Every structure is written in structure tokens, then in C-alpha cells.
Amino acid sequence: MRIGVLSGGGDAPGLNAVIRAVAKTAIFKYGWEVTGIIDGFEGLLTPTKTRQLTSWNTRGILSVGGTILGTTNRGNPFAHKTVIGGREIVEDMSPLVLSNIKELGLDVLIVIGGDGSLKIGHGIYKLGIPVVGVPKTIDNDLMATYVTFGYQTAVDTATEALDKLHTTAESHQRVIMLEVMGRYAGWIALEAGISGSADVILIPEIPFSMDKVVEKLLERKKAGSKSSIVVVAEGAKPAGGEMAVREKAADGYVLRLGGMAEIVANEVSRRTSFETRVTVLGHVQRGGSPCPFDRLLATRYGAYAVELVARKKFGEMVSFQPPVITSVPLENAISNLKLVDPEGELVKMAEGMGVNFGR
Ligand code: F6P
Asked: What is the DSSP letter of 82?
């Protein structure tokens, strides 16, 4: 048996832990071979972009951020883009992917990815290739699993940033906005915001009113608070308004969000006498060493992916349904995004304690 493994989409802390667990379980428990595909699905467009994984070259990577295999969040073999003579050509390269999988002698493909990469993995599965998915993303927006690996580390990073911002905001009597990632989901903002004691949390699932935000900040000042902290998810948007988009593809697809914290800060400055500052946490949330929770989860995911291969359970994604690791059909995971429930327990609890969501 030869397993191919690739990481697709944006990196997330714990990717190497999954790769290591796949390699070790396949090699030690089953005596199989593991081929690492370089740079995500791009690596399947040329059969030389691979690397044999051994117990030796996957040593010492459990705690290391990033991915030893490389990744990309800009390539889809079903709609592959190339620029020829200044014109963008979109082609379906999946036949080439299939013939390269054959040429490489891969019996199965383990795809470690978020929504986009697992959709591609599902597409390859529908073409007849045995595929197993592993849920990865700091955004935690995948259905059918309690949590994705990488998310907890991102929440830890954002919470630590909030702890630091509290002390400087207090010293200078400022309102500081922290913009965090998460794309269309507000999980990082919500959970880091609660854990880092934010006063206002703005998330995509609850379009905000600027009046309510300002009202809350003024109320806090009146009650004697010298400073305030506002967490802004990159996908947050004002009621009746739009998300802040940094970059769009030619076909209108949103490549990058960002800038809403700056917009909120400017508006707070315009309407009040508060001095404001903005911190955009950016890719710090994706880099660095996975926290112990993510190391363990990623290891369990990687090892279980190999067990699915052993049981020939293909077209499935490993899934954490506490306390057990199990699996679900890939299509359940990619059908919809898992978003924060605006009326859910976490939001309601935070509101009950005075946190403002701009409503
Ligand atoms: O999906 C993970 C993520 O970090 C999102 O939170 C963010 O919107 C996006 O990727 C950023 O992507 P890039 O690495 O292309 O800037």
C-alpha cells in the first residue's frame, strides 16, 4: 500500500503533527509507504513534486509550525489558472492529476485541508480515487467535526495578544481594536474575545451597529473604565453594509478580507474623544508551534486517517466528536460553513456579562 499525503489551503499549526502521525502509523503499524506531495494539489500536476516520507525525515516535527510539504491556497486542479500572453486561461487539469496519481503508484490520497481543499479532495474521490480527509483550519468553520486542528492555537495567540493590549490600553487610556482572522466565521474573535476579556466583539454572524459600539464605549467611560478593547473579526460588517475586502480575483472571488478594525477605529475617533489604536494580528495566528491541544488532536487525526485507509473507508473525513475520533462522509463536511449561532450559548453568556456585539 502506498499512501499519498498533501496539505492544501492556508497553513495551520499542527499540519506537521498530522503528517508525522500519518507516516509513523502507516510505517510502524502497517509497513506501508508514504509519499508526501509538495505544495498541495499543485504537486499533483507534476509527478516529480513529491518526497518519500520516512520515520526518519518526519522526526522532530511534532512541535514545528507550518508544513514540511508546503501548501498553497490559490490552486484548484478542476479550475486551474494560467496566464498565457497576458490572458488568464482556466482549465480542468483533473485528468492530469489522475494520471499522475497512477504514475506515482498511489493507492490512496490523504488530503489535509479546510473547506476548499476538502471540496477538491471530494472531487478527486468522485473521479474514482480513494480519498480520506483531515479537517484543518484556524477558522474552525468546518461542519461535521467539533473542532479543526490549528484553531485552538490561533485562539491562544489572539488571547495572548489581548492580554498584552489590555495593559498598554489602560496605561494610555485608549480604545484598542484587535483585528483577527476567521474569514466568514467569527469563532476566533468570539472565543479569544471572551477569553481575553474584550469589551466589544464584532463577528460576521452579527452585523453591527456603530451607534451601539460607541454607546458601549461611552458607557464604560462613564462608569470609570480608562480603556476599552474591541475585537473585530476580519469578516465583521456593519448592519446593511459590506465586509472589508483587501483583494479580489478577476472573477470576483474574495481572496483576502481585512481592514474593518481600521474602519471601526476611525469611526470611534470621529464620534468621540477617545484615542484609538489598531492591531491587526494577521498571519501570526497561523504560524508557530501548535499548542498541546492541537498537537494531540492533529496526531489523533493523522493516525485515524491511516486507520480509515486500513478499513478501506474512503470518501470520509476524520472527525472529532468528543471524546472520540470517528469519521463522517466528506460531503457532510463541505456542504455548509459552520458559523457562530448569534443566539447560541456563548454569545448569550457573553452578552449577559456585559460584552457588546454591536447590537
Ligand atoms: O483560512 C485561513 C485564513 O487564515 C483566514 O482566516 C484568512 O482570511 C485567510 O486564510 C488568509 O489567507 P492568506 O494566507 O492568503 O492571506
From this structure: E
Overall pTM surpassing 0.85 (yes/no): yes
C-alpha–C-alpha distance, residues 56 and 90, integer Å: 40
Over residues 315-336, the pLDDT tens digits come to 999 999 999 999 999 999 999 9
CB 183 within 8 A of CB 114: no
* Greatest extent of the chain over all pairs of C-alpha atoms, in Å: 70
Give just the sign of the alpha carbon dihedral 22, 23, 25, 31.
Answer: positive
| Predicted pLDDT of residue 357 | 98
pLDDT at position 37: 97
**CA dist., res. 55 & res. 58, Å (int):** 5
Single-letter amino acid code for the residue at 153: T
| CA-closest candidate to residue 230, choices 257, 258, 202 | 202
Residue to mutate, 183, 248, 257, 285, ligand 1, most ligand atoms under 8 Å from C-beta: 183
Is 11 catalytic? The answer is no
CA 181 to ligand 1 centroid distance, Å: 7
Could you read off the pLDDT of 26-73 as tens digits, one per residue?
999 999 999 999 999 999 998 789 999 999 999 999 999 999 999 988
Q: Which residues pair with 245 in a beta bridge?
A: 257
> Could you give phi then psi for residue 37, rounded to 5 degrees?
-95, 130
CA distance 262 to 247: 16
